[in-house]
Write a structure and sequence with these properties.
The protein is mainly alpha-helical. It is built from 3 helices and no strands. It is elongated.
Length: about 55
């Protein structure tokens, strides 16, 4: 429940990058978009906190 919003934002940002046709390969999208990388890192930190701290 805590990460639903973050997953939706990641999916929307990825979709926006694909719709712009800025990149073709999914790996290129993730590696070339700093905001998407930051959101992915935030998701990983949230999941670590939820699984191991709480």
């Amino acid at each position: 429940m805590w990460t639903v919003t973050l997953v939706i934002v990641i999916a929307m940002k990825y979709s926006l990058d694909i719709e712009k046709k800025k990149y073709a390969d999914p790996v290129e999208v993730i590696l070339n978009d700093k905001i998407l990388m930051l959101l992915g890192f935030a998701y990983a930190v949230c999941m670590f906190f939820i699984l191991y701290i709480v």
